[in-house]
Write a structure and sequence with these properties.
Blueprint (H helix, E strand, L loop, with lengths): L1 E11 L3 H13 L3 E5 L13 E3 L3 H11 L3 H8 E7 L9 E6 L1 H13 L4 E5 L2 E7 L2 E7 L4 E9 L8 E4 L2 E4 L11 H7 L5 E7 L2 E3 L9 E3 L22 E5 L2 H9 L22 H7 L7 E6 L6 E5 L7 H8 L10 E3 L2 E7 L17 E3 L9 H19 L13 H12 L23 H12 L4 H23 L1 E2 L1 H10 L9 E2 H5 L6 H4 L3 H9 L4 H12 L1 H18 L17 H10 L4 H5 L6 H10 L3
Parallel strand pairs: 1-2, 1-9, 2-6, 9-20
Antiparallel strand pairs: 3-5, 4-5, 7-8, 8-9, 10-11, 10-19, 12-19, 13-17, 13-18, 14-15, 15-16, 16-17, 21-22
Amino acid sequence: MILEEKYDLIVVGGGHAGCEAANAAATLGSKTLLVTQSLETIARMSCNPAMGGIAKGQIIREIDALGGYSGIVTDESSIQFRMLNRSKGPAMWSPRAQCDRKVFEQKWREKLESNPNIDFWQDMVYELLIEGNKTVGIITKMGVKIHSKSVVLCSGTFMNGLIHLGEKNYAGGRSGEPNSRGITKQLMELGFTHGRMKTGTPPRLDGRTIDYSKTEEQSGDINPEKFSYTETSSLSSDHSCYITYTSEEVHEILKEGFEKSPMFTGRIKGLGPRYCPSIEDKIERFSDKNRHQLFIEPEGVNTVEIYLNGFSTSLPEDVQLKALRKIKGLENVKMFRAGYAIEYDYFPPTQLKHTLETKLIENLYFSGQINGTTGYEEAACQGLIAGINAHQKNYNKEEFILSRSEAYIGVLIDDLITKGTEEPYRMFTSRAEYRLLLRQDNADIRLTEKGYELGLANKKRLKNLKTKIEKSILLTSFLEKQSVSPVEANKILEEKGSSLLKQKVKLKSILARPHIWMEDLLMLVSLKSFIEKNNIKEDSITQTEIEIKYSGYINRERDNAEKLTKLEKITIPENFDYTKLHSVSAEGREKLNEIKPKTIGQASRISGVSPSDINVLLIYIGR
């Protein structure tokens, strides 16, 4: 059977990458088909029911600033919100929300179904239609041919997925769902290299059988913020998480099952996430630790199901339950289902362009775990960029690429295609050279205008951004001009342990002091009345505060970013022959030839390419 309707874009997979890809392309005007094995599992939170976290929260804010939906859906399904790392500098502040898993899925599906440019097809994709070196559609398991101008593969853990539980293993893309087959073999025949990775999930518990009195309560922020820069509702009620710990007794029980662990017996070949290890990994790698922290997280408001964050495992079910019942608060716990590990195919992302289009096959894009990443947020931002660029190319428009100094999204994609990854890639603030520029509070300032120019962010978003900036400028001007006397300020300064004033100074100079924050200065009548009179909102106040307090560091980062931007503007000819660079190391030539960087800036970030190699390259291209 051939589906008569031809699409601009087919998105394969309805996970976080697939949802953002389909929505972005369709919003921009592409006739889009979302193909998924089950319409009931669109936007499923396969692992923990939460969005955001360190660096991940910044990514969700960036997706939202560009006009994506992950932030909005998170706000609409949140049951707890926390701003992490408040005790550190603003570059480290990271929003995180606990979500109701079912509501999250429902809200995403509603968003997609309300987009008139999105059609849906429930089936498994078995093969890509290729003509020459271009993809022109797909063939499903049921033999249906569907034609399109481009395809985005967002296959998650489904490609040849193999689930491991103790000594058992079986084919599956997720618990209770079949894996997908066929595409890996075809891609390999087309010349792609591939590898295997693994990830895991903890057991799901019956919350009715947990004694919370023996655990530590972890409530959300007293004044919770939200992810989206749009007018989504703030969180009205907070649902606590709880903390407990493993013990040496728990570790000894778990060790009894190591001989049946697929990780230790070698049945799992793929590498797992370094920064989100299984409990077996933790016991082995951190043998000096006599306990590990666990988070008891609710799956939603209308369910007693619990996610035990920090206890990812693939040990036999009986070992899991025996160990769980030695943990404080879990002495009588019952499991809804055991934890398991899943091994799946991925394709090293050095085979991609910055647009996430493959180098080998035109109009074919990869996003999400197929590129070796882990996490909903990392997948969602790749889907957004792939969807945008598929649309842009289909309509002969300029490609959309974010630089490392513009967004964490830019850092992530550049890391993937320039350095590659041999283990599941997770975003951290430490991966960004300009993290003080890439804060969670200014994602809209960095990206909303870009989203508007694309056609993804609407006019109201742009208007809100301009208001925020104008109010921040107004407040900054007031702080620069308004003086404060010792009589007014010294009580505040004394309470904060800051040196007292002997004469009048500008408010800005006081705010620039360490440990003095805007909330302290709001005790001053002149400042408080100015803010109220001019209706200056919290986001503009935060923006002003950070820019003043960290102006020296921020300006230094901007200068460094501008210097490196010059290297990004020096392009390398597309078919440059690196073999003639005899003064470049053999490793450098090999890596340059493999990656084929577009600019000197990208070349300088390739592992194995030294600064002297870059100097030689500059000479050869006449710079």
